[in-house]
Design a protein that fits this description.
Radius of gyration of chain A: 23 Å
Largest interface: A-B, 105 and 105 residues
CATH topology of one domain in chain B: MetI-like fold
Oligomer: heterodimer
Helix content of chain A: over 70%
Shape of chain B: flat
Number of strands of chain B: 0
Shape of chain A: globular
Radius of gyration of chain B: 24 Å
CATH superfamily of chain A: MetI-like
Largest sheet of chain B: none
Largest sheet of chain A: none
Strand content of chain B: under 5%
Number of domains of chain A: 1
CATH topology of chain A: MetI-like fold
Mean pLDDT of chain B: 89
Distance between the termini of chain B: 28 Å
Number of helices of chain B: 14
CATH architecture of one domain in chain B: Orthogonal Bundle
Distance between the termini of chain A: 24 Å
Number of helices of chain A: 13
CATH class of chain A: Mainly Alpha
Mean pLDDT of chain A: 89
Order of helices and strands of chain B: HHHHHHHHHHHHHH
Order of helices and strands of chain A: HHHHHHHHHHHHH
CATH class of one domain in chain B: Mainly Alpha
Low-confidence stretches of chain B: none
Low-confidence stretches of chain A: none
Strand content of chain A: under 5%
CATH superfamily of one domain in chain B: MetI-like
Structural class of chain A: mainly alpha
CATH architecture of chain A: Orthogonal Bundle
Chain lengths: 277, 292
């Protein structure tokens, strides 16, 4: 914002100092993880706080192999990809229906779906676990995909509905005049037009699924995703900080990369629901 | 006639599309909610044997010292709510006002929020240890070290501080989105009329931000009630004693025992009652903003 008074300008410079310190603290964990991941365990014991002097990649090899992070990585990738794909498919279809089609109780259905937001996993922990068990989905990746989809679906549908709401219904009517069926309208018109919202949603859901620990702890008990692997590593090798740090770098690298590439998308998606669509 | 046929196709498609989504929500959330509620009135042993015991589980819950402690902890945690709103709002205002390096700050502040709570917790578990780097830094400037996580007096505050640190960037972004909706011409006009920063804040900015403040308050409260599991799990495991046990973690501990699901379900029902009000507020705000 231009034309700020001189006095205010000076205050802003002063404010920038604590803000910069806060920013440093936000970068610190990444420095901490990379720095310690490169230390040998002996090097870590000798100098826990200093910068690494003789960097080694042995910790990454150990985490990937001995600590079975290769398996956890595959689990995380498959489950996240499956859940995000399913979430995008369902939410664009339902968003299209809720925003553009005319059917009875439309608003009620919308509020009911949003209402599911009121039921977090903790509130249904026991019966949820039994449901997963009863359906034979315990310790299956499919089970985790379905669970993630169920828990992240309301927000996804909300975002797509709000987005499609901004498009004119004439789009639908024109396509129908040309004889397109609803499924074709969705495929040829709604999906391409919804791309910006779908991208934002895909990134946000990738973040949520990749980072989740509670649902994953319940559903994939023996096979583990990366985050459960990290939590377990902390228990099993409390003293081996370099190995833990290497695991953290492996688990965080993909998501930090996604953030750096798609930063603006995430910024847009976070405020959906807070401001009028 | 033709119109009605068209309307039917529309309805049929909508129903077809809604079915799988509704099915997933029903199976994994809505039925479990009702099931859990029923379960909370039984003495189920987790193996199929269950008798109706009325309010016995709830009586057990309210006399359970661990649960009482978790409620006290919840109250303490919720008492920090003003910080969760004021700090991000102040930061967003400064960035909006064009603080030097603002764009960089905005990007970096959100960085902790993209990291999993398990990762944040594991890192701070090492940093906050008695022999960790924070105490080393304190010692370097002549202060005495504190056992941040091992001390009942500081563990909860440390947990809350780490959670705040890892999520404040999200609220900053939401406030910035709100600030971008402020009428710039009005702001400029006020400035030309000589309105100082505080006057502009009070008469233009805050009134515009009211709905955003509401939203952040609601989302933060829900996060404090149901979003701290990962952090508790790796940072403190609820301890020392029960000093960082919140209801959501207690439910997890009870669930893990598997032998008295009715009791765990009763705690769940209490948590649901605690958060239902704010959660409903969130649903209302969101459906209002979607303008459906």
């Amino acid at each position: 914002m231009a034309a700020v008074g001189k006095r205010e300008r000076r205050w802003l410079w002063i404010a920038a100092i604590p803000m910069a310190l806060l920013a440093l603290s936000c970068i610190y964990p990444i420095v901490f993880a990379i720095n310690n991941a490169l230390k040998t365990s002996k090097g870590y014991i000798l100098d826990r706080f200093g910068m690494v002097t003789d960097p080694t990649v042995q910790n990454f090899a150990d985490a990937w192999g001995r600590a079975r992070f290769s398996e956890y990585f595959v689990n995380s990738v498959l489950v996240t990809a499956g859940a995000v794909g399913l979430l995008l498919l369902l939410s664009s279809l339902v968003g299209f229906a809720l925003a553009m089609l005319r059917f009875p109780f439309r608003r009620l259905v919308f509020v009911a779906i949003l209402g599911a937001l009121m039921i977090p996993i903790q509130v249904v922990l026991v019966p949820f676990y039994r449901t997963v068990e009863g359906l034979g989905l315990l310790n299956t990746r499919v089970g985790l995909v379905l669970a993630y989809t169920a828990f992240f679906l309301p927000f996804s549908i909300y975002l797509m509905t709000a987005f499609y709401r901004g498009l004119p219904r004439e789009l639908l009517e024109a396509a129908r005049m040309d004889g397109a069926r609803f499924l074709e309208v969705w495929w040829h018109v709604m999906l391409p037009l919804g791309r910006p919202a779908l991208l934002t949603l895909g990134i946000l859901n990738t973040l949520y699924c990749w980072n989740d620990v509670l649902i994953s702890l319940l559903v994939l008990q023996d096979r583990r995703t990366l985050m459960v692997g990290i939590a377990a590593l902390r228990g099993e090798y409390t003293t081996n900080v370099p190995l833990l740090a290497a695991g953290i770098v492996l688990a965080a690298a993909p998501i930090v990369l996604v953030y750096l590439v798609f930063q603006r998308r995430i910024v847009g998606g976070i405020s959906v629901g807070a401001v009028k669509g | 006639m033709a119109r009605r046929v068209i309307g039917q196709a529309e309805r049929r498609f909508a129903a077809l599309v809604l079915l799988p989504a509704a099915g997933l929500l029903l199976v994994f959330r809505i039925v479990p909610l009702i099931w859990g509620f029923v379960l909370s009135f039984t003495n189920s042993d987790g193996l199929g044997q269950a008798d109706w015991v009325g309010l016995a589980n709830y009586r057990g819950v309210v006399t359970d010292q661990a649960f009482r402690d978790s409620l006290v902890n919840t109250v303490l945690v919720l008492a920090t709510l003003p910080i969760w709103i004021l700090l991000p709002m102040l930061l967003a205002l400064l960035i909006h006002q064009g603080v030097p390096g603002g764009r960089f700050f905005r990007a970096v502040y959100f960085l902790p929020a993209v990291l999993s709570s398990v990762i944040v917790g594991s890192i701070f578990n090492v940093v906050l240890r008695f022999d960790g780097s924070l105490n080393a830094a304190l010692k370097a400037i002549g202060l005495s070290p504190v056992d941040w996580l091992g001390n009942g007096g500081t563990a909860l505050a440390s947990l809350v501080a780490v959670h705040l640190w890892s999520t404040f960037g999200m609220s900053v972004l939401i406030f910035l989105a709100g600030l971008s909706t402020i009428n710039q011409e009005m702001l400029e006009a006020a400035k030309l009329d000589g309105a100082k920063f505080w006057a502009r804040l009070r008469f233009i900015v805050i009134p515009t931000l009211r709905p955003i403040i509401e939203f952040v308050a609601v989302v933060t409260t829900i996060g404090l009630l149901t979003g701290m599991f990962g952090l508790i799990y790796v940072l403190t495991a609820g301890g020392p004693g029960t000093s960082t046990t919140l209801p959501e973690f207690l439910i997890w501990l009870e669930q893990g025992k598997l032998n008295r699901p009715g009791y765990a379900a009763a705690i769940s029902a209490v948590l649901f009652a605690l958060m239902a009000g704010v959660a409903w507020a969130q649903v209302r705000i969101m459906s209002r903003n979607a303008e459906l």
